[in-house]
Every structure is written in C-alpha cells, then in structure tokens.
Amino acid sequence: MAEDGRRGDEDERGPGAAHQVFVVMECLLEKLKVLNYEEEVLAKHNMKNLSRHYFVSSPYLASNPGEQFYMFTVIAAWLINLAGRPFTEPQEYDEPNATVSNILAELRAFGVKVDFPPSKLKSGSGEYVCLVLDRLAEEALKRRSFSFRRPNYPTETTEEESVTEDDAELTLSKVEEEMIEEPDDEENVMDLETLKLRTTHTEAERSSKPDEILESTVDATEWNLEVERVLPQLKVTIRTDNKDWRVHVDQMHQHRDGIKSSLKEAKSYLDKLQEDIGKTQEKVGSREKYINNQLEHLIQDYRSAQAKLSEAKERYQQASGGVTERTRVLAEISEELEKVKQEMEEKGSSMSDGAPVVKIKQSLTKLKQEIVQMDVRIGVVEHTLLQAKLKEKSNMTRDMHATNIPEHAAGPFA
C-alpha cells in the first residue's frame, strides 16, 4: 500500500519528478560555492570536494551513508550559523536522531514547513536531504543579502547587407588592392585604365559594326601563345575564410560523401555480423533443447532431492526450536542453582567462622564496663541529689526557726 501511495504521488508530480533532485543538487552546489564552502568547511575538516550529485540517492551512484550523513550534518550546522542562529557543530559519534531533530527544529524556526519524517534524513542522501540543505543555503544567502539575477546578454548589431562584403566574391577594388600589394617583378603588367579604354573602344566598334555573323581571323597558335603570356597576369587568388557559408557547405558535402562511403562498408560488415549472430543463436537454441532433453530425468531427480532437502530443513528447524527452548530453561535452572550454592557457601562460612563470637564477647565486655561506669555516675548523681535535698531541708528549718522566735519574744512586751 505504501508503494502504491508513493507511485500515486510521483504520477501527480509528473514524469520528471525523479530527476528533479539532480537539478536541486546542482543548484545547491552552486550556492555552496558562492558561500565559499571549500575554505570554510572542506579545508577545515580535511574533506574532498562534493560531486555534482553527491547527496542524490540513486542506484546508479555510489553511496556511503555514514560519510554522507556526517557531511550533511556538518554543512547543515555551518549554514545555520551563517543564517544567524547559533548551532553547535555535531561530532561524528553523536546520536543521529538528536542531531536530525535539532536541524529540523532550526529549519522550522526559519518558517519552513517540514512535512516528512526525520528518518528520511538518517540515510544522508535523497530528495529531502537536498531540500533541507537548499533551504538552509537560501537563508544563508538572504543573511548575506545575495540574490541571483538574470544574465545580461550583449545585443548583436546586424550590419546592412549593402555594407557586408563577401570575401569569396571577386570585386574590382580587391583585385586592384592585391595588384598594388604584389611586387611588380614582370615588365609586362596590364594597366586597368588601358583595359577600360580598350573595353570601351571595343564596345564602340561592336556597336558601329552591322549585325552579322562575326568570324575570327586570329591564328590559333598565336592565340595560344598570347594566352600563355597573359595567363600569369590573369590569375586571381581568393583567400578562403572558414566562416564563409560556401566552405561550410563544401565540408557538409564532403562529410556526407564520407558517411555514405563508410556506411556502405560498415553495412556489409554489420549484415555479415548479423547473419553470424543469427546462426550462432540458432546453434545455441538447438544445443539447449538437446541438453534439456538429455538432462530431463536428472532435473526431475534434482527436484525430488530438493523437496526432500526442504522437508529435512523444516524438521531440523522444528527440532532446533525445541532444543533452543530447553537450552533456555537449562540456563535459567543453572542460574538458580548458582544462586543457591552461593547462599549455602555464605551461610556455611558464617557458621564455621568464630569471628562473630569473638565480636559478641568483646561487645559484652564493653557493655559491662559501660554499665559499671553508668552505675558510678548514677551513684554520684544520687549523692549529689541527696546533698541538695538535705541542704534545702536545713535551709527550710532555719527559715522556720527564724520566723517563729521573734513572735514569742514580742509577746510579753506587747
């Protein structure tokens, strides 16, 4: 039922929810780099740099839960301190549950809603670990008044088509510049002005001639000699530019031809390889069928032996369960017997030992001495009390005589 609920949540969040944790981890790493965690955390604890997907839980990534959980607690404590709240840095042997609860308490203090159990953080990796560190990193960046802004891309100025010149095209101005740059080693150099005058003169003559079929009267050999003489001057070199689209098109055609030729060669090899693989599969299938037919009775014997083994294991488990119970009862009886033996030894040692009798005699002697001393003290006190009573009685008698004698003496004189 839990797996069905989890699948339902993933369906609601969309197909890309499983890969969202990779994006969160990459953003978290960038925020940690902004906060300079290499010097303040890694260098302090002698740790290696985090990879792009260090806290991501995936079966395709290597994991070390103990190391990841310790790294998570250290970075979380550092971020909480950066965010302005004091937090003691956890140690490697601290209680994981207490550490996680303290981190979540600090996260709730920042106003973040925690709707997942703390046990999700004990593995040291996963979606909730990345979420907690990301929110703490945001609070630390807010404390430093840092915020990410959109990049400003430079505006590209598009030049007018009339201004741009194609280096691959041959223009009269470029020809003139190249002719000026080249040294005049030859004596017979054609002048452009003279060429223009000849061209205009020829056009004028053509316009003056009537419209009829023109036949050449120049000898072919002389024409070839003139061409050979003028040919070095007619050569124009055009510098190739790698940015030219014509070069790119030529390269594309060359690559396409190369791919086609390579594809033809590779296709034959692949077809041959496919045929070999198909034949090998057929051979393997036929061998498997033959082996299965030959070993069918052995397989049945193996299954029956396996069934007997399972029954024997079950009986052994039942017997071992009874033995375990009896062993436990024997251990309890042995423990009680040890207690009884210990009590008997203590009583026997106390009965055979004469030290208590000696102690009793010493106590009686001391008690008699104290009684004698007490009797003496009592006699002294009684004697003192008797003396006090006698003294008090004598004083009373004296006082009585002192009061009675004057009365008799005053009687006759009255």
TrEMBL record:
<dbReference type="Pfam" id="PF10498">
    <property type="entry name" value="IFT57"/>
</dbReference>
<dbReference type="GO" id="GO:0005794">
    <property type="term" value="C:Golgi apparatus"/>
</dbReference>
<dbReference type="InterPro" id="IPR019530">
    <property type="entry name" value="Intra-flagellar_transport_57"/>
</dbReference>
<protein>
    <recommendedName>
        <fullName>Intraflagellar transport protein 57 homolog</fullName>
    </recommendedName>
</protein>
<keyword id="KW-0969">Cilium</keyword>
<dbReference type="GO" id="GO:0042073">
    <property type="term" value="P:intraciliary transport"/>
</dbReference>
<dbReference type="GO" id="GO:1905515">
    <property type="term" value="P:non-motile cilium assembly"/>
</dbReference>
<dbReference type="GO" id="GO:0007368">
    <property type="term" value="P:determination of left/right symmetry"/>
</dbReference>
<keyword id="KW-0966">Cell projection</keyword>
<dbReference type="GO" id="GO:0042462">
    <property type="term" value="P:eye photoreceptor cell development"/>
</dbReference>
<dbReference type="GO" id="GO:0003351">
    <property type="term" value="P:epithelial cilium movement involved in extracellular fluid movement"/>
</dbReference>
<keyword id="KW-0175">Coiled coil</keyword>
<dbReference type="GO" id="GO:0005815">
    <property type="term" value="C:microtubule organizing center"/>
</dbReference>
<comment type="similarity">
    <text>Belongs to the IFT57 family.</text>
</comment>
<dbReference type="GO" id="GO:0005929">
    <property type="term" value="C:cilium"/>
</dbReference>
<feature type="coiled-coil region">
    <location>
        <begin position="263"/>
        <end position="350"/>
    </location>
</feature>
<dbReference type="GO" id="GO:0005576">
    <property type="term" value="C:extracellular region"/>
</dbReference>
<dbReference type="GO" id="GO:0030992">
    <property type="term" value="C:intraciliary transport particle B"/>
</dbReference>
<dbReference type="GO" id="GO:0045494">
    <property type="term" value="P:photoreceptor cell maintenance"/>
</dbReference>
<dbReference type="GO" id="GO:0032006">
    <property type="term" value="P:regulation of TOR signaling"/>
</dbReference>
